[in-house]
């Protein structure tokens, strides 16, 4: 193993002040003295600002000096030196990219770039009625979020939208030119709709604000942003995983004996899929718009490659094996009687599906024209055809054919669909731009038809102004966005896109669950199929996707999470790249034949999947291209790599690739040196400066495969090209909370990733101002004694979810088997594990269309003037007072609704309001345990309905059956609560808070938990926080040394005295602090029993479920057990008497059911007998009778 990093160990002792200081210092290197709290020091501040500015200038000069190529940076004494603290690049990276920034970047790209592009593509509206009329969009602009009412100050904060159940949205305005009569009218800033704004994007009011400014807006500075607020709920557009577009993917189907190369083409106009496949030793071109598979030679001939020799060269090259396997295709072509391009076009044209919209005007087009159009625009739509020059497309099809031939001879050349380099991630920006494109086209169609309607009318009093029609339509765009985001259904007919579940409600159980949701990736596989391929952990996921964070169960491996230092790219224009490629000496491919293309030293250059040219010196070309990228001449997110199997050079600039930064290594030395890091520490340079100077670059998965990356500096070899910034960044934000994860069995880390999202802790700094549906808060959260670097980077130490419990690992009382925990009663009294549960209950005070409205009333009085017990806490305004205790069944909002709310008779005139009678529709408290009214909010929504929200609070202390978990997937329920005097104690008289059974360790192999206890104990004694970062952290030897220095056993074991007998225990006990999380699963929310209660109307059986006070089902398997024991009376009682026994009258003669001792079929009451059967059976008989199936009951005397 390579030696562990030095900086990891030094991180804590370097803090000379409080333990908390180290975190603030590492997380925010730029703590320049700009934010002075008091205004009286204004003059000083200016002076200090000046000095800070000069210091920064000097530092920048130093930085420039350092980046000179001839600078050696070596002293006299140090031949080779490690880069100290290179992990500081990580907080610098997280400032500019990472975690949630990809959502925000993608949304910003959509607002700034995509909106304008979509507008440009659909910028004209013409009229069929009046040819002189036109309307043209010249610009589009998105404002800042605003209220949708006529208030004086329209600016709005996200928190107000959460509280008032409104949408956090901004107005989209366009600039238009249109004709009115004979005049051209220009209007600027015409509103066409409202776009929901992503929090923390550049259109959001929170962007770039200081902590103080955020506090004034009651917004948490640690809140990640990246979500939308729609109708008061926080919605996240999850990252979607797709196969990459415009790339050739070769697959085999051994069952059908098919080898196929497929391409999904995607342009702004259309998306389609094209296949080149081999079946029965013949190669065909397949596409949905062509009725049958076209032999490949005919397809190539139709594209202007007539000579058979040329076709053979283009597809098979000079390889003999490929030539012989391709030859039969040429014979097929001749057999079909196709020799020229014209014949080939006619052959294809007769097989093209013709789709004509509207009425057929003019003569029918000849078939070869149909074929030309299909080949030019539909087949392989992303390869452009200029005029009638099909050469590019022909070469592309030939390349696909060549890939199929290569895969036939060599199995290894089949592509892997699950390889991360073949995937693209779709972010909020791309999904929203598709949605906007669809809505905007509909908007323009509606606008056109409404304009046509007006222009059709011959006589008008005034000249027609299109401005009014524009304003009428604006609701379409607003409601389109709101509906899509709030339901999560992206159904766009234009792009054949039907997707459900794109958005989810942001989970606010804990700070970590919200953060984990922002980095989640969902793939489009069905969860039901048991496919192992997509679920497996791919080697290519290293550093890009977190190795531990995936759910257990059916979605395992399909739902993934991003690692810590990843960024998802946005689109970069490809025209300039093509120019650069030609400048770097790439020849145009259209001038060469197959012999040159497939000669052994030639490499084909691809840009975003379309073939551009040839190069004979791939290594030199790639090196030059990388030089350009490192010097900042082209975007840093463009990747270039050589594929030696296919003899190609790939350049990718499309959006949705995952990439991560690496330190560049040259001549076995990393380019980043300690001096650079020192400047970063002083806050003089930022992460972007490292990029600009070419010290660091972004690699995506494909280029990573083409590099040689060292994990540690000590392992750099002569061929090394890059150095990892930090190895622990292969884990994501949620798995980064686990201390010493590299000492645990892998599934345990996965379990902790699931449970860390359910722990109760602090949610945000504004948690007490929020009114959420359900809010769990810990009363005394603590930061962990054993931290990791990730914890400091994401701010978990400032919003923690758990407490440091003193744990004794021993068995006690027998109530601790199967992972149950023993808790100390005195610890619970002191607030260990105590939490608060807040529930929101809201109601609308509605105004109805017929003029009536709901009202709040004071408590109704009895005849003698007293108030019923359940109305005790209602005040004169009909709402309970804040701070009142609410018992089960109490009313806390006494609302009354009019009886005739829904009839449309509008009653005006005198005494109308007096004549309306009201009925009580109160809100009453349902929970079994008493609560308190925490706060009441009165406001009005967008459409002037009054909204009343009541927040109810319960404080809960841990009880038997509550679930706890450490950070190592070791979950357990509380099995017994023991008085402090009965707990064991050590020499100092310390009692454990928790006793854990030692049998939880051997089979689970969570050694990390044992080391955490050791490090935590050492930290408590030395008064410092220890680190348990993955692949590093505080060493066990050092921890043991600290324990010995303070007079403890090096192994972390203590001698305990039994609290029951008072004798010393006969073995040493492993004893120290472990960070425990209380999970949201509490017994009080789960416990359920019932004697008699509600029944379902149809079957008269007890209802189902705890919420409906349902019965406990004796199911099929339980029934089988009772049958096995022969307990017939018990069966009868459970399945009929206690459930739905029903007495019927049955006739012995005809076997049908009667009533009241009368058989209507026999018209007599002689042979009618009473018997008891389940009501469900009676129902079944009646339903069968209704279906013309007649069941007869055959009765015997018992």
From TrEMBL:
Keywords, comma-separated and alphabetical: DNA-directed RNA polymerase, Metal-binding, Nucleotidyltransferase, Nucleus, Transcription, Transferase, Zinc, Zinc-finger
Cell compartment(s), UniProt: Nucleus
GO MF, any single term: ribonucleoside binding
EC top class named in words: transferase
Pfam families for the chain: RNA_pol_Rpb2_1 (PF04563), RNA_pol_Rpb2_2 (PF04561), RNA_pol_Rpb2_3 (PF04565), RNA_pol_Rpb2_4 (PF04566), RNA_pol_Rpb2_5 (PF04567), RNA_pol_Rpb2_6 (PF00562), RNA_pol_Rpb2_7 (PF04560)
Residues in DNA-directed RNA polymerase subunit 2 hybrid-binding domain copies: 734-1108
Catalytically driven reaction(s): RNA(n) + a ribonucleoside 5'-triphosphate = RNA(n+1) + diphosphate
CDD domains referenced in this protein's UniProt entry, alphabetically: RNA_pol_B_RPB2
Domain of life of the organism encoding this protein: Eukaryota
GO cellular component: DNA-directed RNA polymerase complex; nucleus
Annotated protein name in UniProt: DNA-directed RNA polymerase subunit beta
Species in which this protein is naturally found: Rhizoctonia solani
């Amino acid at each position: 193993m390579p030696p562990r990093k030095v900086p990891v160990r030094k991180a804590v002792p370097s803090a000379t002040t409080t333990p908390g200081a180290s975190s603030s210092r590492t997380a925010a290197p730029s703590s320049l003295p700009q934010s002075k709290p008091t205004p009286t020091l204004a003059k000083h501040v200016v002076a200090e600002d000046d000095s800070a500015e000069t210091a920064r200038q000097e530092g920048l000069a130093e930085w420039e000096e350092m980046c000179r190529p001839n600078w050696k940076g070596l002293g006299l004494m140090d031949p080779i030196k490690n880069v100290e603290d290179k992990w500081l690049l990580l907080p610098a990276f997280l400032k500019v990219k990472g975690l949630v920034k990809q959502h925000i970047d993608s949304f910003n790209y959509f607002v700034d770039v995509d909106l304008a592009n979509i507008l440009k593509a659909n910028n004209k509206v013409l009229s069929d009625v009046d040819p002189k009329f036109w309307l043209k969009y010249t610009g589009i602009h998105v404002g800042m979020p605003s209220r949708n009412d006529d208030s004086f100050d329209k600016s709005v904060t996200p928190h107000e939208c959460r509280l008032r159940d409104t949408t956090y949205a901004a107005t989209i305005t366009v600039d238009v030119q249109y004709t009115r009569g004979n005049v051209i009218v220009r209007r600027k800033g015409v509103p066409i709709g409202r776009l929901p704004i992503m929090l923390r994007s550049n259109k959001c009011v929170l962007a770039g604000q200081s902590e103080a400014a955020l506090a004034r807006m009651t917004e948490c500075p640690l809140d990640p942003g990246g979500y939308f607020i729609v109708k008061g709920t926080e919605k996240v557009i999850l990252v979607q995983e797709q196969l990459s577009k415009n790339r050739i993917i070769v697959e085999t189907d051994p069952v059908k004996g098919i080898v196929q190369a497929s391409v999904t083409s995607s342009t702004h106009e259309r998306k389609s899929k094209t296949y080149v496949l081999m079946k029965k030793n013949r190669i065909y071109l397949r596409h949905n718009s062509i009725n049958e598979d076209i032999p490949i030679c005919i397809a190539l001939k139709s594209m202007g490659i007539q000579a058979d020799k040329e076709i053979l060269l283009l597809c098979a090259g000079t390889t003999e094996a490929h030539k012989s396997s391709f030859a039969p295709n040429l014979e097929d072509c001749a057999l079909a009687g196709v020799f020229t391009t014209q014949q080939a076009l006619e052959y294809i044209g007769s097989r093209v599906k013709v789709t004509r919209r509207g009425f057929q005007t003019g003569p029918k087009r000849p078939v070869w024209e149909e074929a030309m159009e299909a080949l030019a625009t539909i087949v392989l739509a992303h390869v452009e055809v200029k005029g009638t020059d099909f050469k590019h497309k022909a070469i592309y099809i030939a390349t696909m054919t060549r890939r199929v031939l290569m895969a036939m001879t060599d199995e290894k050349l089949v592509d892997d669909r699950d390889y991360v380099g073949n995937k693209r991630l779709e972010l909020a920006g791309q999904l929203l731009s598709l949605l906007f494109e669809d809505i905007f086209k509909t908007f323009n169609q509606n606008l056109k038809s409404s304009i046509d309607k007006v222009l059709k009318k011959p006589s008008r009093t005034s000249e027609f102004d299109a401005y009014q029609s524009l304003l009428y339509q604006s609701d379409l765009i607003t409601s389109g966005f709101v509906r899509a985001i709030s339901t999560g259904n992206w159904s766009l007919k234009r792009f054949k896109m039907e997707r459900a579940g794109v958005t989810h409600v942001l989970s606010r159980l804990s700070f970590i669950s919200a953060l984990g949701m922002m980095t989640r990736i969902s793939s489009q596989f069905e969860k039901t199929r048991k496919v192992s391929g997509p679920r497996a952990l791919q080697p290519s996921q290293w550093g890009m996707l977190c190795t531990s964070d995936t759910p257990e169960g059916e979605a395992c491996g399909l739902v993934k999470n991003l690692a810590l230092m990843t960024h998802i790219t946005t689109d970069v224009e490809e025209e300039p790249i093509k120019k650069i490629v030609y400048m770097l000496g790439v020849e145009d491919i259209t001038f060469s034949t197959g012999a040159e293309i497939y000669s052994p030293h030639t490499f084909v250059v691809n840009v975003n999947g379309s073939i551009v040219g040839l190069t004979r010196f791939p290594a030199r070309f790639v090196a030059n291209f990388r030089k350009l990228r490192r010097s900042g001449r082209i975007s840093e997110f463009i990747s270039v790599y050589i594929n030696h199997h296919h003899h190609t050079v790939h350049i990718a600039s499309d959006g949705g690739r995952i990439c991560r930064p690496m330190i560049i290594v040259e001549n076995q030395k990393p380019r980043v040196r300690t001096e650079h890091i020192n400047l970063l520490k002083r806050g003089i340079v930022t992460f972007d400066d490292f990029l600009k100077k070419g010290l660091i670059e972004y690699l995506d998965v494909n280029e990573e495969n083409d590099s040689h990356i060292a994990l540690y500096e000590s392992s750099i070899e002569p061929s090394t090209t890059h150095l990892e910034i930090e190895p622990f960044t292969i884990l994501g934000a949620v798995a980064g909370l686990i201390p010493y994860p590299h000492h645990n069995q892998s599934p345990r880390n996965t379990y902790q990733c699931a449970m860390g999202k359910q722990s109760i802790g602090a949610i945000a700094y504004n948690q007490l101002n929020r009114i959420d549906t359900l809010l769990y808060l810990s009363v005394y959260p603590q930061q962990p004694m054993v931290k990791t670097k990730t914890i400091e980077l994401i701010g978990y130490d400032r919003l923690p979810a758990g407490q440091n419990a003193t744990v004794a690992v021993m068995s006690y009382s027998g109530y601790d088997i199967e992972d149950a925990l023993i808790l100390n009663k005195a610890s619970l009294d002191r607030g260990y594990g105590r939490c608060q549960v807040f529930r929101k209950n809201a109601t609308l005070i509605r105004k109805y269309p017929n003029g009536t409205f709901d009202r709040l009333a004071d408590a109704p009085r009895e005849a003698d003037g007293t108030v019923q017990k359940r109305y005790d806490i209602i005040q004169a305004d009909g709402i309970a007072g804040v701070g009142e205790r609410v018992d089960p069944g109490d009313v806390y909002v006494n609302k009354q609704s009019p009886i005739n709310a829904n009839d449309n008779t509008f009653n005006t005139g005198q005494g109308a309001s007096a004549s309306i009678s009201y009925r009580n529709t109160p809100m009453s408290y349902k929970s079994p345990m008493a609560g308190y009214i925490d706060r009441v909010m009165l406001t009005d929504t967008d459409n002037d309905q009054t909204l009343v929200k009541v927040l109810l609070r319960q404080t809960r202390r841990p009880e038997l059956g509550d679930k706890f978990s450490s950070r190592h997937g070791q979950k357990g329920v509380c099995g017994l609560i023991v008085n402090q005097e009965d707990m064991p104690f050590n020499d100092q008289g310390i009692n454990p808070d928790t006793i854990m059974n030692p049998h939880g360790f051997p089979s689970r192999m969570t050694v990390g938990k044992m080391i955490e206890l050791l490090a935590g104990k050492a930290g408590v004694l030395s008064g410092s926080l220890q680190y348990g970062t993955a692949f590093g952290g505080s060493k066990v030897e050092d921890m043991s040394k600290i324990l010995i220095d303070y007079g403890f056993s090096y192994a972390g074991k203590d001698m305990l005295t039994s609290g029951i007998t008072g004798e010393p225990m006969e073995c040493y006990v492993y004893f120290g602090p472990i960070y425990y999380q209380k999970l949201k699963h509490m017994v009080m929310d789960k416990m359920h029993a019932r004697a008699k209660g509600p029944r379902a109307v149809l079957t008269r059986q007890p209802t189902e479920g705890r919420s409906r006070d349902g019965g406990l089902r004796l199911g099929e398997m339980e029934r089988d057990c009772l049958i096995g024991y022969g307990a017939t009376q018990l069966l009868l009682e459970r399945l009929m008497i206690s459930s739905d026994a029903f007495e019927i009258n049955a006739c012995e003669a005809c076997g049908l059911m009667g009533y009241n001792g009368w058989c209507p079929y026999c018209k007599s009451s002689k042979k009618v007998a009473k018997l008891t059967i389940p009501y469900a059976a009676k129902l079944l008989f009646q339903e069968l009778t209704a279906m013309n199936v007649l069941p007869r009951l055959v009765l015997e005397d018992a």
